[in-house]
Amino acid sequence: MKSIQEIEQEIVEEFSLFDSWDDKYEYIIDLGKRLPGLEAEHKKDENRVRGCQSTVWLVAEYKDGKVYFKADSDAVIVKGLISMLIRVLTGHTPDEIINAKLGFIQEIGMTTHLAQTRSNGLLSMVKQMKNYALAFKVKSEISHG
Amino acid sequence: MSTQTIAKDLDVYAIRQQFPVLKRQVKGRPLVYFDNAATSQKPQVVLDALMDYYTTMNANVHRGIHTLAEEATAAFEATRDAAHQFINASSREEVIFTRGTTEGINLVAYTWGRQNIKAGDEIIISEMEHHSNIVPWQILCEEKGAVLKMIPINGEGELQMDAFKKLLGPKTKLVSIVHVSNALGTVNPVEEIIELAHKAGALVLVDGAQSSVHLDIDVQAMDCDFFAFSSHKVYGPTGIGILYGKKEILEAMPPFQGGGEMIKEVTLEKTTYADLPYKFEAGTPNIADAVAFKAAIEFVNGIGKDKIRKHENDLLAYATGQLEQIPGLRVIGKAVNKVSVLSFVVNKAHPQDIGILLDNRGIAVRTGHHCAQPLMTCFGIPGTIRASFAVYNTKEEVDELVTGLQKALKMLL
Asked: Is B224 annotated as catalytic?
């Protein structure tokens, strides 16, 4: 299993192959289209991440000490961005997720290229994923005394 | 074509030269700015006026007796006179400086509203209001136990006037209505609304944030009781706006905020308030932006609103025709009487995705609910893509939008 940092590095290298932002967006859109959507039962208000303009749903599962994420959005570019976040964070321990720096978002140019209002959607997604990790960590610490 | 016709037309390319920001590149391409309903760009004369104010006469207004203070006061008050003419108020005392439309509406809600609205009274707004003409009234109604009612709209995005007539009654104290919808471009029949409301004994506030740049505004002919608008949508600076109110109504209203500028005499026991319009202008105003606002008004008057309107209407008609040829595209808001704003949705494509991809080609549009969530709910959509046109936009830019949209849809669908 690759570390969070190794996966981030992979994504940065993949993006370095693109010549233009059109190509980057084509790729992100493709990721968005390929990310399996959430079942209707998960698309409820309590799973919503409050972003800017699009609706994002995020669910997490804790299994054998690791956190697994699933997400969906009604906007495909945002869905592609979530797909990358899931690729980086899913299957890792709560501690690894809480401490992840996620520098790749900036390195592939997403924070400068998307206006602040939209990156906020991305940042609230990251925050929500870390919140899940923290909640699972606290819960497992309590149950293990 | 005769030379006379050419002379009468607006020379959009010469006008573009006056807007420095239009020369910039965005994402490696020439900027196409179609977010004018959010805020317009500023011509050089406005930028010069701002610079000139700070470099030659910066001083506080109304108080000093030194030369700079007198010059600053004269420049500040000259804008009041220009605004007075711009909306044809009957006197300059009726022209109050605010931070913008939102503050103008809040001023009325917090002063006239608190003084006159009682439990059980009714305030009428419409389903196409901007949040700034909804929330102040919700706050007031909640505080007073009054009732807020909404005029419904039809499928074209026009007010249902029959429904409005039924809403009007003896309990109606105020109708607060948008002149031109920011999300749809619909021009509302405010004269008719005002006449009906007055017959029912209610006052009328007109939200002129969008209309003031496109339509000829004559508050006396309109007979509205209040009219609020912002400088920054009329090619002027942000942070300054105007609230017009009929003199006798303004005189009876309590002050909005307390402080300097708005007083006649202060003792520890009692303060007497300044005369209009100063009663409503507490504290040091936004002098520089107010001064530069005059340059914006002169810029608009210099070209003529009739020419600007014709230019924008031509663009709107051209853009509507072009966009409607795109399969799956639906224009939201098809009022017979509309200006400048083209709102649309495309089947299966989220407005945000389209907005991001258009921005990637240097095209600035607005996507989302446009601060009019109740309106979006009426149409059953989360938001639209909105292109809004100004005096400096061209058909070539509309072509860029169409091409950009086609490419975006090819990527998305």
From this structure: no
Question: In CATH, what number is assigned to the domain containing residue B146?
Answer: 3.40.640.10
C-alpha–C-alpha distance, residues B126 and A62, integer Å: 48
Q: Exposure string (b/e) for A34-53, b if CB count within 10 Å is 16 or more? A: ebeebeeeeeeeebebebbb
Other beta carbons within 10 angstroms of residue A76's beta carbon come to: 25
Q: Which of B45, B50, B58 is CA-nearest to residue B19? A: B45
Q: Choose the closest CB to B367 out of A53, A74, A76.
A: A53
**Does B156 share its domain with B171?**
yes
In this structure, are B141 and B276 located in the same domain? Answer: yes
Burial level of B200, CB count in 10 A (0-12/13-18/19+)? middle
Query: Which residues of chain B make contact with A30, given a CB cutoff of 8 A?
Result: none
Cα(first)–Cα(last) distance of chain B, in Å?
A: 45
- A-contacting residues in B 346-375 (Cβ below 8 Å): 350-353, 355-357, 359-360, 367-368
Tens-digit pLDDT profile for residues A57-107:
999 999 999 999 999 999 999 899 999 999 999 999 999 999 999 899 888
A4-137: which CATH topology?
Sufe protein. Chain: A (3.90.1010)
Same domain? B279 vs B364 = no
- Closest CB from B350, B360, B412 relative to A74: B350
Query: Taking CB atoms and an 8 Å limit, are B353 and A76 in contact across chains?
Result: yes
Same domain, B221 and B362: no
> For B241-266, what is each residue's pLDDT tens digit?
999 999 999 999 999 999 888 888 88
Chain B residues in contact with A115 (beta carbon < 8 A): 359
What ipTM was estimated for this complex? 0.89
